[in-house]
Write a structure and sequence with these properties.
With 261 residues, the protein is an alpha/beta fold. The chain is built from 5 helices and 13 strands.
């Protein structure tokens, strides 16, 4: 019985190399075919369905403005990049982009809801319900009489929270906050719709709120001593350790010191 002739090492190497080249060619061919199929016109994005809050963005113009910035087909489109394109549109806070086979996108939008102007007087930035600063055309703001809040941008949510708590306190006196500012040193200042300016001082939110409540509890009594009502308040400084100083319109006394009760 004949023994099998061993295959030379050179032949084995050539066979292995040929097999590897064949597999590589097959993979490249499959990749090229897949790329061709994925780029086929039938899979080009043919439409975008917009849902959600679009009060400040017409769905038709939104599609027309965004679509040219999207690149790729149904399969190759980068959804993250598409989301960023939609979120760059004014008033859009958040976008969720999904594919709809075979050639459509569905986008759910959430718009900013403006609750205040943000920044120094004259600035056109806005603050939303989450305490986030955003830029948009202020001429499109639907709400009337928005307050102005100001402070370090990174503390915008804190400023909004303080505004909400203080407005609730001032509401009991039928007074409304027109401006709330947080200084870089942590001091709070408000301006009322009557024009009165009040220095609230610093400290924790609870300390500022308690200080404000004590002041408002005595304001009516103090102003009535001079034949005035709380709306006559011109300025007040609550940063005194044992009381506050105030000025009333029509009263010549430069400052009135009132002990805490």
């Amino acid at each position: 019985m004949k023994q099998p002739v061993p295959v030379p090492a050179e032949v084995k190497l050539m066979n292995t190399l040929a097999t590897a080249l064949f597999v590589l060619f097959a993979v490249m061919l499959a990749g090229a075919m897949a790329s061709w199929v994925l780029s086929f016109k039938a899979f080009a994005i043919q439409g975008i369905t917009v849902t959600g809050e679009v009060k400040h963005n017409n769905a038709v113009t939104l599609r027309a403005n965004v679509a040219p910035q999207l690149s790729g087909t149904f399969f190759t489109l980068d959804l993250g990049q598409a989301r960023r394109v939609f979120e760059a549109v004014p008033w859009v806070r958040q976008a969720v982009v999904r594919r709809e086979f075979p050639n459509r996108l569905r986008v759910q939008l959430q718009e900013h809801k403006a609750v205040a102007f943000w920044g120094a007087e004259g600035e056109s930035r806005l603050l939303n319900t989450y305490g986030e600063v955003f830029e948009a055309n202020v001429g499109e703001v639907e709400q009337d009489g928005l307050p102005r809040l100001n402070g370090p941008d990174l503390q915008s949510a804190q400023v909004l929270a303080m505004y909400r708590s203080l407005q609730e306190i001032f509401d009991n006196m039928d007074l409304s906050l027109e401006l709330l500012e947080l200084s870089g040193r942590g001091g709070w200042r408000v301006r009322l719709d009557t024009g009165a300016a009040i220095e609230l001082g610093g400290g924790s939110a609870e300390e500022v709120q308690a200080r404000t409540q004590r002041f408002l509890k005595t304001l009516t009594k103090v102003s009535s001593r001079y034949g005035r009502n709380p709306e006559a308040l011109e300025t007040a400084d609550l940063r005194h350790e044992n009381g506050y100083a105030l000025r009333l319109r029509g009263v010549t006394t430069s400052a009135l010191e009132v002990q805490k009760k």
